[in-house]
Amino acid sequence: MTAVCVVDYGAGNLRSLRTGLERAGATVTVTADADRVARAARVLVPGVGAAGAAMAALERSGLRAAILAAAAAGGYVFGICLGMQLLFESSDEGDVECLGLLPGRVTAMGFADRLPHMGWNDVVADNGHPLAAGLPAVCYFAHSYAVEPASAADVVAITELAGRRFASMAGSGRVAGTQFHPEKSGPAGRDLLRAFLRWSGDAA
Asked: How many domains does the chain have?
C-alpha cells in the first residue's frame, strides 16, 4: 500500500480525507510532526479557512519548512482547496507569502455571482497531467479565492463559473493540487485520490 502523510496544522477535513485515502488504498499518517512530514515520500496539504492563519500555523509549527524539505527531496506534494492555494507564491487573502512551490498567486473571485462558490461544477482536463486521467468529472467546491498559475502549462484542469474559467487543478513537477474537494466528490474524487497514489515520475 502507498503511504501518505497528511499535514495536520489545524485546518482541514482530516477525518474524511483519511477515510477517502484509505478507501483508495493508502496507508495514512495524519501528523503535526515536522520531521515525519519532511521525510515523507507523499505529502498531502489539506485546508479549510484563511491563507494568513494557515501560513502562520505552518510557520509556527515548523511544518512550512518540512513541506519544502519533502518537496526538495523529491517527494510528491498534493494540496486540496486552501492547501492547493498555499502551494503558490502568494495570496491576496491577507496579502500573505505562501510556500512558493508553484509559480503564481491566489486572487479573489470577483467575477463570481455569489461567494463563497459552493457546490458541484464540471472539471475539464487542460493538459496531460497524470492526475487528470479521470476527467472530465463533476466535483464539489467551497472557496472564494482561485489560483492564477504564472505559466499556462501549469494549469491541469479548468472550471467555468459565471462565464469565466479558472484553474481548478494545477501542478508542475511533483507538486500539484485541486481547488475542489476530492474527499467530497464521490466516485470522481476517489478516482483522483487513486491517481495521486499511483502518480510516478514528474508531470507531463
From this structure: 1
Question: Is 88 domain-assigned?
Answer: yes
Q: Which residues are catalytic?
A: 81, 181, 183
Three cell numbers, residue 87: 502551494
CA distances from 86 to 9, 92, 93, 176 (A): 13, 11, 11, 11
Nearest to 137 by CA among 168, 115, 163: 168
| pLDDT band per the 50, 70, 90 thresholds, residue 203 | low
Q: Is 143 contained in some domain?
A: yes
Q: Which one, of 183, 2, 190, lies nearest residue 81 by Cα?
A: 183
Which residue range forms the structural domain that includes residue 19? Answer: 2-198
3-state secondary structure of 12: coil
Tell me which residue of 12, 9, 63 sits closest to 37, measured CA to CA: 63
Q: pTM score, two decimals?
A: 0.95
Q: Specify the length of the chain in residues.
A: 204
- Strand blocks (E) in 53-180: 76-80, 88-91, 96-97, 102-108, 117-125, 137-143, 145-149, 155-161, 164-172, 175-178
CATH code at position 140: 3.40.50.880
Q: Where are the alpha helices (DSSP H) in 3-125?
A: 14-24, 34-39, 51-61, 63-72, 82-85
With respect to residue 203, please indicate whether it lies within any of the assigned structural domains: no
Segment 155-188, tens digit of pLDDT: 999 999 888 999 999 999 999 999 999 999 999 9
